[in-house]
Amino acid sequence: MGGSCQKLFKFCLLAAAAGFFLMAGGASAGGCARGRMPQGTSIGGVDVSGLRPGEACAAVSEALRQELEGYALTVRAGGRAYVFRPPEIGWKADIAGAAARALREGGAQPLEKERALVREDAVLARICADAYRTGSPARVLFDADAEEPFTFVRERAGRYIDGAALQSAVRDALAQGRREVRVRAVRVAPGCTLAEARASAALLSSFTTYYAEANAGRAHNVALAASRLNGRTIAPGEVLSFNACAGARTERNGYRAAPVILEGEYVTGVGGGVCQVSTTLYNAALLAGLTVAEYHPHSLAVGYVPPSRDAMVSGSSCDLKVKNATARPVRIVARAAEGALTVRVYGQRSPVTYSIESEVLERIPPPAPQVGADAAPPRAAKEGVRSVAYLVRREPGRPDVRTRLRRDSYAPVRGVLPPASASASASASAPVSAFAPSPPYDPALRPVPAA
Q1: pLDDT in tens, 2-16
Q2: How far apart are CA 417 and CA 223, in angstroms?
């Protein structure tokens, strides 16, 4: 390579280090011959007459440098401003190629040039990285034991800079000599907003039954079963088993002896009172629009809900199963305190509401009372009931839909007379009746349940 070419190549390297992109391609070996530019020769409007090639390149480079003096480009993106000046901004120009042509041909030689960011890819990548923010959806925090079971974390939208759009905008601004570029960050919507999170944890139903705290064993069992139901979440399509929640009704599992219904009789058994929890859940589930996949009625009517609204559970043979057929999870809060058991169901807010109607079809008189043994406690007779229950669906702007849920028959209870009463009855002119009709269900009375 000739001396002029070596000097030209060295100068191009120095210029590049100073922030100019000087493209040295395009000059042939012959074009690097020793000599001076013909008179009347210019490169890009710079007169290089009589100059050697290296001197011509230096003159053109200096002119380009002066042209950039005072120029700055401000890029506004992602809420920040980035200011670039020379040497961060330089020229892309094939000065060496233009000099070779000028040496060969003389005359006015054009110089194609364009402003450019030095290390453009790295600079624009940094701007994109600064603006990037990962989004996060609103979250629901569920604590069934808290006074208010739900707290919410607000969503945060994500954002990013479109790298291709940023590059195009910067290059256009540099080409036109503009001094400012504004690039909007692309907003990425969160998967769930705070409003949507709140709507997904709306109170769908609440149902309360009452129990006697004086019956310590039964009150304990109600509270224990309620605590094991409390905080349960039923995912979409999932079926909740009450027996799986409550666990085996054994002393080892924490349950105590209390009255239960067994084969149409009131007896003492471990776990008495648990059916009240399953019954309360049964009603709350229906009122929330959930599907009851399995339920069983008692053999005798209970005192804490109207007929055809009970749900008996026993061991592993009789269970209450509730299915969430909705598209969102539902959460259960169950609390027992001061003689009141309340089950609440939370889920996706809906304009649809439900109610349950219970209707007594027939009252069944009890059989004649019997005389009990000396140790047998007396017992009032209780009439049986044949009943039906309906689920009423209400939606604004549409007629109510009334669907029959179930039809049940509850056996009457035979009265038991004490022996002394039996003797007196035999000598009296009028028999003594042990029959006491069951009063209508009234939740305000807080009836004392027997099972």
Answers
A1: 443 333 333 333 333
A2: 34
